[in-house]
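Narrative of activities, Objective 1.

The group set out to show that a structural description can be obtained from nothing but a protein's sequence at a throughput compatible with the screening campaign. Below is one input-output pair from the validation batch, recorded exactly as produced.
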Amino acid sequence: MRMHTRRNPSGNEPATYSQGIEVLGGGRTLYISGQIGVDEVGNILPGIAAQSDAVFINLQAVLKEAGMTFENLVKTTVFLTNRDDFPTFAEIRKAHLEHAKPSSTLVIVSGLVRPDLLVEVEGVAVASS
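Output recorded for this entry:
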């Protein structure tokens, strides 16, 4: 299995995500439900920094259980409830993902399932069979 990044015609190369990722060959695909900012016992953490950190810790745990890492992540969808939280979220995302650059969509939403949730991230990962 090989993965190649693809660009749109603008030539824009975002720093923290890819415009597109093409997966060639067979492999396993993992669809990851939206991960939220909760600790190991399910408590919602206070603030965007703590919730964003927990989102990526939880996302990494799901990947690890499938024998994958952030390098296998090919797509994320991010839901933020406050546009002003984006810089903090982006900084934490960059720290967790390091060199991984999945394709990504970010949407500002009016709310999540619980009013104290500020961010949710779902993903798709692909690994060799």
